[in-house]
Amino acid sequence: MGALVPGRSGLKGRTRPGGPAPGPPKTQKAEPPRGPATGSAWLEDDAPRVVLIARNQHGYANLCRTVTDAHLESDRGTPRLRWELLERRMDGLFVLLGDDSPVARLLDAGRHDAAAAEARRWADLVGPSSLLVGVTHHLAAGDDARARARFALADRLGLRAVANQAPRYLDPRDARVADVVDAVRQQVPLDPRHSSRRNAEGYLKTPAQMARVFAERPDAVANAGWVAERCRVDLGLGRLRVPDLAGGGGEPDAELRARCEAGVAERYPRVTPEHLGLLERELAMVATLGLAPYFLTVAEIVDRIRSKGILVACRGSAAGSIVTYALRISDVDPVAHDLVFERFMNPSRDELPDIDIDVESARREDIYRDLLDRYGDDRVACVCMVETFKARMAIREVGKAIGLPANEVDYVAKSFPHVRAGDVRAAMDHLPEMRGLNLDGGQLGLLFDVVERMDGFPRHIALHPSGVLLADATLRDLVPLERSANGFAMAQFDKDDVEALGLCKLDVLAVRMLSSMSACVDEVSRTRDEQLDFERIAWDDPDTYELIRSTRTLGMFQIESPGQRELVGKFQPEHLSDLVVDISLFRPGPVKGDMVGPFLQRRLGQSKVVYPTRCWNGRWARRTG
Q1: How far apart are CA 66 and CA 55, in angstroms?
Q2: What is the pTM of this model?
Q3: CA 152 to CA 356: how far, in whole Å?
Q4: pLDDT single digits (tens) 179-209
């Protein structure tokens, strides 16, 4: 289901040539400035809205593409849909004329003939059987008359009138939370004049409750069930959708094998049975999972990044694969380091294998633009992330809405650590630093009641810092897109939704150290006329390790923090494998498990190394060495 706003060139301000005007003419006013200080003019809009409901798979694809068109062809933040776009993509959709529709507004203005003409225009567009007249009744003053007007229109034109409760919340007790959310969204104080709610009836009612509300017209509830029964949309959750953006034209498995065999021969001066056996095992796994096009696509993307002179490196479990090493996605030799391929990809994993690549932070947007230019935003899009209300943000927004003094709200918000909004009272009860502050009283009690109910509420969507969605030409049939603040096509689904749909995601992580290294190469070339090649630098340079052991590691990636400088001083690394162990030790698990001290004592010979071994009777024994 999706609510769409017809644009000014479509239904707002005028109608299709020859059709009725949606309301009395209004005096033209200059458009108000948009920004947080302008209140409701910033986020609210009085444009008419209709609701589109996907009836089948084709209808869902049309719905996604229609939402995408409304966003990408309008100014960011103010999506508008022209009538011409609606005409193109109405197959497989129901159109629900709710309270915000132009038809309902004409009825409420007493212009019944104009409302009928407008409804006929929609019936001509989608067909009478797909046009629904929504009837909302919240048991408020005037709802009886409004409901009867909508039923009369539907009966007059032979359309289905459906019970449309338009719920805002699950529980009537959350009505005040809805008011606060409205005030926060509009950036206005909490006041009855800013609320569209007339009572607390806008909650999700049970079928029995709806039957009582529409006792006079039980067919409205039956019609709602009729619509629901005819909506058959299968999103294919869990189905794998592997893109073939590289477009080799041949059989992906055969092409991947050929490239990997050539890559192994190039990477290893002497190819051994161990190399070939590992490659065969991995290629068989890739073929079983149908992921050959994905590996070829990622390899092409990494090659394009390198061809632009951008430093790129693979991180995470993907570095344990000889396939990624042969394709030059990764520069880590999995055989030399005895890495485990199954940690990266195996049939028992619930999620797709995830390849993460590090790039220069200063060039990340250049990479996004190149991918969109190369493959098009109908195949590639950035992933969004949904920003939700955490404790501090919720306290600030709710406190401002209910009119608490700004300095008091600021003090309360800063008193909390970074916790979920639903944990504010638990934090006050259990965190030592919050005891004795006496925050939960008076108006603050109301504040915390609302803040707790807003736990996990979405605040806005933003561009994910690294996720890039890779798909085929059906991308816009599955995912609606919009523009990010910096102009990139961005999926309205977050990374979890994308993975549930079986779409492939590539994480392009911005690393400032890579930008610093690139700047260093340019500076050496400028000042010394020397060309540094990182692939030709020795891994066992003794002067480098002497510098590291001195703990003067500021500016050295991953070993520059105060804790790491202390650890390398005690560890005294002598070669690359020591640095691998050092970085592995400096993780939350080993640190919290008190594993660092015992390891250093045994490394320095201050205590014996103890190995667990299994005795003949199946019991564990300890052997020292």
Answers
A1: 15
A2: 0.81
A3: 59
A4: 888 888 878 887 777 677 788 888 999 999 9
